[in-house]
Amino acid sequence: MRKHLLAVAVAATLGVTSFGAHADALSDIFTQGHIDGQLRTYYFSRLYDTSAVPDASAFSGAALINMQSGTFAGGFSLGASFLTANSFGTQSNNPAEIDSTLMGLMGRHESVSALGQAYVQYQNELMQVRAGYQYLNTPWEGQSDSRVLPASYNAVSAVFKPAKGWDVYALRSFEWKSRTSGGYYADNLYYPPTYNGDGMYGGLGGLPATAHQFNGTWALGTSYGVEGFKGQAWYYNFLNFARMGYFEGSYTFKTGTGFDPFVGAQFVDESGSGNNFLVTNSTALFGVPGSKVKSSTWGLTGGVIIPHGRIDLGYNKVASEAGAVGGGAIISPYTAAYATDPLYTTSMIRGLVEMGPGHAWKAKVTYNVLPNLQVIAAYAKYTTLYRGNSHDVYFDVIYNLSGYLKGLTLRNRWERSVGGWNLNPGNKPFTYNRVMISYQF
User: Between the CA of residue 372 and those of 194, 316, 400, 401, 409, what are the distances in Å?
Assistant: First the structure.
């Protein structure tokens, strides 16, 4: 039934069109349509300070093509995104020397191609509803777009706009395409790589290959922003994994001086029992199995927006929970090991979702050296129960070209992780460098 979701949605739309649309409206599907996209060339390097594990790297070129039709039948439209990535025969013959998180554990001359989106949409001034393959942009279920291909979902989603600055969201996702997969599968990042043939690499794992398929997610959320205040609240039901409540709010004090202080807070609460797949499979996250899912996390942030930049300070604490899977670990099916969660202290390589109960603080400075040159530096310190103490140092340089080369971005992300237990190979420092060149058109 899930795999026929898109076909049903398209058929329903065509039925509406056949009854209510005029010929000139049908022509708008093509004449008022829009195509855009992005070309990407990425080279990732994993450099280990131990001789026990070989360094790994990967190169990939990719194209992301988006197509949006004009509207018809009073607000309907069609959208599609085609994704393709290719290593161009550059991968090592030794799988241990390939960074499989970039586009999968590919052999020579292989590629990944997929439909990132293929949906039917209805939109008016008060709402937007989509059905089919689509990108999602929610705090704990999103694109995780730090590789050549983003993640996407087979879902029905809706956003309602009751008043200015106020949005209400609802979604039901069934399957997903991870950022290294070529198709849509009923799994998540706690399943093993190649589960049911899925080329899903870079997850946290823990479940056996015999685990029951993931049943998807229900989510409801709302966000509101007025003047200096921004807030959001979400409820997720990761079916048979965890029920999550997430709250976040911030306030920026507009001083008129160019220096605007801000403060913020976030809270995550999770529970799960009964037929929970992590429990029934005796999954030992961070070496700790449990009879339930129970997690509680809070965080604070503050800083100041300055001319041409900003300074951020963040703190998070994940409480220890006796008898819980992972000793109280946050269960995050779509971000675990991707390090794309919304916690204030998550680094490029990992954060508390990937390390379990404990606390962390992070300082970050973002500064525009030139109008088109941005530099980011950060330091994060982690103190955890099952992964010990570690720290990460991060540098990021982003250069956006202008003039005839407008749309071209050159970026280098570098992070070094030091310390901890069972975090880095041989418990030695690990350096991750990501060269990212993209062209948006």
Answer: 41, 32, 5, 7, 10
Helix, strand, or coil (residue 160): strand
Distance CA 342, CA 138 (A): 10
Q: What is the pLDDT of residues 395-407, one digit of tens each?
A: 999 999 999 999 9
Torsion of CA 215, 344, 199, 283, to 10 degrees: -60
Of 355, 337, 342, which is closest to residue 202 (Cα–Cα)? 337
288's tokens: 């700790």
Which residues are CB-neighbours of 1 under 8 A, at least 6 positions away? Answer: none
pTM of the model: 0.92
Report whether 64 contacts 42 (CB < 8 A).
Answer: no
Closest CA to 436 of 4, 58, 184: 58
Angle at 20 between CA 16 and CA 23, to 5 degrees: 110
Calpha distance 310→303 (Å, rounded): 7
Backbone angles phi, psi at 404, to 5 degrees: -65, -20
Tell me how far apart the terminal alpha carbons of the chain are, to the nearest angstrom.
Answer: 36
Which tokens go with 167?
């949005």
Counting Cα atoms < 13 Å in the Cβ hemisphere of 425 gives 15
Longest dimension (CA), the chain: 69
Q: What are 107-166's pLDDT values in tens digits?
A: 555 899 999 999 999 999 999 999 999 999 999 999 999 999 999 999 999 999 999 999
What is the C-alpha separation between 393 and 376, in angstroms, rounded? 11
Task: Look at residues 351, 361, 357, 359 and name the one whose alpha carbon lies nearest to residue 386.
Answer: 357
The CA–CA distances, whole Å, from 274 to 5, 162, 269, 295, 355 equal 29, 37, 18, 16, 25
